[in-house]
């Protein structure tokens, strides 16, 4: 027998944003069901680099990132679990004059959004990071950025949502959803849910669900290649990136150096990513140039994930243009971890008030209206 | 131009133990030139491991009854010469689609294979008990390797603990090497060994050897104590004593300066996992193993499995399975194979399976040790994770599955990536939840199979 569930809001996907939305919606007294194909917080939300970074974001994302950043300070307290959030600061290194000019231009622009960045000259950077193996010309420091443990955040949100009374259903893939006029009927494995509102937070799978409502969007999977060393004596005090983005590295409290570079292999059918040896070795080579002391280290694990990427590298956030009551939040394009907490709030605001104080216009799904829709009919019937 | 259609398929065998060696022999006999990869410097695998060049000792001393088999296998590659592309000192650290990634003598390399035989063997199964991380506690395998590779014992006065046929063997080897034995403790009961004695007669020679080792150590004044209920190592900087309770709950204490302890074997199946082979949980040996049909095929058409790497069978089975699997591969390539040889191997393997079933029944999984282990004992020494931490996390933070337990506690995130601690953690999790290890799943596999040095990329 298929179980039936009737709620105010059904959420497809159980990533950080989805579970944060469930928490916020319970705060408004609404009934909520989270329908997750696998386990909550085990998709991109659970396997990412853990960068809680504002610096370098698309300026259109900055207001959201700024608001999210205020939430990170209280996150461990809210969730009742240590998410290992540390304000280590984020340093972005410039290796050419052009890089330097880019950083300075970004600094000025970011100021408009209240993000204060400090330019460091070559001497200052090398004094700050004496272990750097490559000569850099300068850097931009974002003192309020940091890092956290992604494995903990999503599941902790899910558990809090459950404690607050949300229905959290794992191993419950959604196979179809229709608007009924009064709301939605959602078919999941072993479960039919009726809901007044539907939130599409299905990550890389968000495009499929949107297509079912006649909104075709070009989401492609994104699988950054990640590596981790055995624990090392603590020395990488900041989270580090470089202009161009081909190296990024941080060190955990435990001492493991985590770094990334390149993109892995994907099984699009199953929806997962894996690292490739070539990318891992390239990443090791590049990172070693920047951090020569890694020569003493061993890589003990490499991994990847599966995020949704939009052609313009910013997500889709906001109400559906075809179906009242449907709200999208997917396609975070490799940088949605930091945004997770605020996306939860924004989604709850959109459900309860129909609007949000955060400027989400740039993320409207309608920006893809004129894209070709060749595969829409096919995709609508694909079960995922 | 190269005639691509006619080129010989690239066949790779990983593991130069009994299984892998017999496999390359069979492939070479059919005119193929297989590539044989092993991280060890010399062929032989686990049981027939060779001492380093320059430290050789007589085979009879090293391998006892098995010396002729060991010598035959060691000479096999010399005999085959250039017909096998042997790559010793080479770790296969990743496998994706049809590519194997290798690390040898400080450089990274890749091979694209058409078919691969994974003959990666097994390692000791480690279970925690009070004081097991005290310096001077080793696995039985390490105790054996110390003897075989270095010709030294792990201590002056040694207590040996086990849950399988390795225990009487190692005890016998230690006695022969002149070591002083403090105690020989079997944590599984005696009754099932008597009950399944008849089944063990499927391999009379093996049974006799086991009885001989047991008789030898008994006559030397160290009868095996069966049904040991709990263990505790005493000592700080070094093992000082082993305290154990017998089947009736009485406590005993023996002074010793080293302990060799392990509890059966577990398959080294990471490459099969990376290859995407389907795994199932084996309820008898309580481990996840890659599925393998009786002819050596995995669930993936171009990946074959032989020897202990897919299910524990012992060295003789590994030899048979290596040959059998190579014949399967040849048949799958459309090459002629000797049907009567295949039938003979299948009969022998079937007989071995009946023996194995009796052996597993004679040595049931010693789960009681995990109930007895105190909360403050380590499970994972790389990450310093205690048994109590796992038990608490399972209950308080709803970690009902291994990957979740890992996310919350870091179990399986250290150097060994769960190779050593993973099975113990799964058992502890299942026991805490009053569930089964099959239900708590297994740690997701990712490369590298073993740690790879960053500096070698330069
Ligand atoms: C390797 C890697 C490194 C990254 N590093 C960073 C970083 O340092 N900083 C940063 O800010 N961001 C980073 N990101 C990006 C960030 O992780 C993601 O943008 C963010 O987690 C996306 O969240 P999400 O909820 O949209 O997706 P997910 O966390 O993937 O959640 C979507 C969920 O939907 C489920 N789902 C899909 N289809 C269905 C269906 N039909 N029915 C039910 N459930 C379904 C999936 O199983 C999944 O759990 C990284 C991403 C990756 C992969
Ligand atoms: C500690 C111990 C003691 C044992 N004692 C006995 C005994 O007394 N009697 C008995 O019958 N059986 C014993 N066994 C079992 C016996 O060793 C095995 O049954 C037999 O060796 C299995 O042969 P195999 O070819 O399957 O694997 P193995 O002999 O284990 O050979 C596997 C080989 O693969 C190599 N390898 C694995 N992974 C990789 C990789 N990723 N890259 C490169 N190389 C790799 C290893 O270096 C190894 O040489 C013991 C096993 C262990 C672990």
UniProtKB/TrEMBL annotation, chain A:
Residue ranges constituting the FAD dependent oxidoreductase domain according to the UniProt record: 8-350
A Pfam entry, by short name: DAO
InterPro entries with a match to the protein in the record: FAD-dep_OxRdtase, FAD/NAD-bd_sf
UniProt superkingdom: Bacteria
Any one GO molecular-function label of the UniProt entry: oxidoreductase activity
SUPFAM superfamilies for the chain: FAD-linked reductases, C-terminal domain (SSF54373), FAD/NAD(P)-binding domain (SSF51905)
GO CC aspect terms: cytoplasm
PROSITE patterns per record: PROKAR_LIPOPROTEIN (PS51257)
Presence of keyword Zinc: no
Keywords: Oxidoreductase
PANTHER family the record matches: FAD-DEPENDENT OXIDOREDUCTASE DOMAIN-CONTAINING PROTEIN 1, SARCOSINE DEHYDROGENASE-RELATED
Protein name: FAD-binding oxidoreductase
Native species: Siculibacillus lacustris
Automatic annotation (TrEMBL), chain B:
Pfam families: Fer2_BFD, Pyr_redox_2
InterPro entries recorded: BFD-like_2Fe2S-bd_dom (IPR007419), BFD-like_2Fe2S-bd_dom_sf (IPR041854), FAD/NAD-bd_sf (IPR036188), FAD/NAD-binding_dom (IPR023753), Metab_Enz_Cyan_OpOx_G3PDH (IPR051691), Opine_Oxase_asu/HCN_bsu (IPR017224)
CDD domains hit by this protein: GlpA-like_Fer2_BFD-like
Gene3D superfamilies from the UniProt entry: BFD-like [2Fe-2S]-binding domain (1.10.10.1100), FAD/NAD(P)-binding domain (3.50.50.60)
GO molecular function list: oxidoreductase activity
Keywords of the record: Oxidoreductase
Span of domain FAD/NAD(P)-binding: 11-318
Domain BFD-like [2Fe-2S]-binding: 378-431
PANTHER family linked: ANAEROBIC GLYCEROL-3-PHOSPHATE DEHYDROGENASE SUBUNIT B (PTHR42949:SF3)
Name of the molecule in the record: FAD/NAD(P)-binding oxidoreductase
Species annotation: Siculibacillus lacustris
